[in-house]
Amino acid sequence: MKHLLSTDGLDPAQATAVLDTADTLKRTLLGREVRKLPTLRGRTVVTMFYENSTRTRVSFEVAGKWMSADVINVSAGGSSVGKGESLRDTALTLSAAGADLVIVRHPASGAAHRLAGWLEGTGTGVVNAGDGMHEHPTQALLDAATLRERLGTIAGKRIAIVGDVLHSRVARSNVHLLTALGAEVVLVAPPTLLPTGVDSWPVSVSHDLDAELPALDAVMMLRVQAERMHGGFFPSAREYSIAYGLSERRFTLLPEHAVVLHPGPMLRGMEIAAAVADSPRAAITEQVRNGVHVRMAVLYHLLAGEEEAA
Amino acid sequence: MAPRVRGATDPAERELLSAGDVARTIARMAHQIIEKTSLGSEGHRPVVLLGIPSRGAPLARRLAELIAEFSDAAVPVGALDITLYRDDLRRRPNRPLESTTLPEGGIDDCLVVLVDDVLFSGRTIRAALDALRDAGRPAAVQLAVLVDRGHRELPIRADYVGKNVPTSRAEEVHVCLTELDGRDGVYLRREADQ
């Protein structure tokens, strides 16, 4: 594994290996005074964020630092991107400056794939940290890690992804990964917020959240991405919230063991009620915690092995 | 992990220790650990056995059981995975991590006995010492190995050795343990085709 660009086509065995590594790392570091491993000493990781992010950038940085890699953060604002440099030139510059791995977030779908193509032959790997409305593979891996931890396994579990599926790279990555790991995925969204071609996905689709809740093992709420919406996708925020928000009433329809996930950032009162987000059955802060270990595992799998391992 | 098949009937292979020899050797090592660490006597320092996966871990458990049998002293056992501390990570394909489990009370101010199956270059033990430093601050560290095959590349020696085996670098020492391989035994194999 040299790049991690999408969960589409990711080998389930490889995904499971990453999850196992993440789990071992978590247990290894638990309660330790020195949370630092020498594994990636001398490796340079550059994060390149062309879009805002708190948790993804921070957790990649923490993950890199806990593995002793040198982590450098480049943001679009403070770099030559502001002077009009293209993505390609920025990437080649970073690679020439010694980056072993570039972690990129970009508003354009497919940006990470393009980047990996341009960096072919340079020895620099690419991790997709979210590209437009396409994929966000490490988020899906950390969601899977959290589900595995809470539910024991993913195979055979029924998981709903609720809300703005159309604009959500998290939803896409999760659909690929969770179904590859054997879960049954149901998308619950208004018809306007479902992508075209959803019928070819290995999922079922529903527009009635109340009807789905009692049979679920987990429910993943998505943020309504107002910044990507340039038109009327639903009549009003209040109406959306009433139809597709996880309210306290809806929460009671879920089985006792069911887990509530949210990739963050949350809009409390919109897609999820504050009381639900703070309930012990919500795993939202756990997702962030697991995010660090999952990203450590990804760095380990991409950077620790043999240089020429294909 | 599926148990690897080791020590099959191979003409290029010689038995160094039989199942009985392995049992006697481990028992002797248990006695030596009791003696050298004054286990069971008044005011001895707390002793912790840490096995290095994969085969050091079951060895450490066996030693602890025998020590408890011979001296009535309960010795905590753990496992210390050193994969993340190896110095050859970039030269080898990626390897899965094994689990690290430290005993309840930790290892601070204890006498830690590292347990491994074969002592060869010493690099594993160096990595284990690095890993140990991140896990706590033991009062002292000792090393117990079932087989010492020589060819050290670092100034490291074992405090307890089951068997010293002079080997050539072209040979491989395989330790089989019931817990992982279905039977006990130590074999010397000439690397012919590999």
TrEMBL record, chain A:
PROSITE patterns attached to this UniProt entry: CARBAMOYLTRANSFERASE
Gene3D superfamilies: Aspartate/ornithine carbamoyltransferase
Residues involved in L-aspartate binding: K83, R169, R223
Biological process annotations from GO: 'de novo' pyrimidine nucleobase biosynthetic process; 'de novo' UMP biosynthetic process; amino acid metabolic process
Transmembrane region(s): none
Coiled coil: none
Superkingdom classification of source: Bacteria
Pathway: Pyrimidine metabolism; UMP biosynthesis via de novo pathway; (S)-dihydroorotate from bicarbonate: step 2/3
Keyword NAD: no
Aspartate/ornithine carbamoyltransferase carbamoyl-P binding domain residues: 2-149
One Gene Ontology molecular-function label: aspartate carbamoyltransferase activity
UniProt cross-references to Pfam families, sorted A to Z: OTCace, OTCace_N
Gene Ontology CC, one term: cytosol
Positions annotated to bind carbamoyl phosphate: R55, T56, R105, H136, Q139, G264, P265
Enzyme Commission number(s) from the entry: 2.1.3.2
Domain Aspartate/ornithine carbamoyltransferase Asp/Orn-binding stretches: 156-302
Catalytic activity, reaction form: carbamoyl phosphate + L-aspartate = N-carbamoyl-L-aspartate + phosphate + H(+)
Keywords from the UniProt entry: Pyrimidine biosynthesis, Transferase
InterPro entries xref list: Asp/Orn_carbamoyltranf_P-bd (IPR006132), Asp/Orn_carbamoylTrfase (IPR006130), Asp/Orn_carbamoylTrfase_sf (IPR036901), Asp_carbamoyltransf (IPR002082), Asp_carbamoyltransf_Asp/Orn-bd (IPR006131)
Family membership: Belongs to the aspartate/ornithine carbamoyltransferase superfamily. ATCase family.
Role noted for this protein: Catalyzes the condensation of carbamoyl phosphate and aspartate to form carbamoyl aspartate and inorganic phosphate, the committed step in the de novo pyrimidine nucleotide biosynthesis pathway.
Subunit structure: Heterododecamer (2C3:3R2) of six catalytic PyrB chains organized as two trimers (C3), and six regulatory PyrI chains organized as three dimers (R2).
Protein name per the record: Aspartate carbamoyltransferase
Lineage of origin: Bacteria, Bacillati, Actinomycetota, Actinomycetes, Pseudonocardiales
Primary gene name: pyrB
From TrEMBL, chain B:
EC supergroup of this enzyme: transferase
Sequence ranges assigned to domain Phosphoribosyltransferase in this UniProt record: 16-165
SUPFAM superfamilies: PRTase-like
GO biological process terms on file: regulation of DNA-templated transcription
Motif window: PRPP-binding: 112-124
Domain of life: Bacteria
CDD domains (UniProt xref): PRTases_typeI
Catalytic activity as recorded in UniProt: UMP + diphosphate = 5-phospho-alpha-D-ribose 1-diphosphate + uracil
Matches recorded under Gene3D superfamilies: 3.40.50.2020
Keywords, in A-Z order: Glycosyltransferase, Transcription, Transcription regulation, Transferase
A Pfam entry, by short name: Pribosyltran
Molecular-function annotations in GO: uracil phosphoribosyltransferase activity
Documented EC number(s): 2.4.2.9
Function field: Also displays a weak uracil phosphoribosyltransferase activity which is not physiologically significant.
HAMAP family the UniProt entry points to: PyrR (MF_01219)
Family affiliation: Belongs to the purine/pyrimidine phosphoribosyltransferase family. PyrR subfamily.
Matches recorded under NCBIfam families: PRK05205.1-3, PRK05205.1-5
Identification of the protein by name: Bifunctional protein PyrR
Organism, scientific name: Kutzneria buriramensis
Encoding gene (name): pyrR
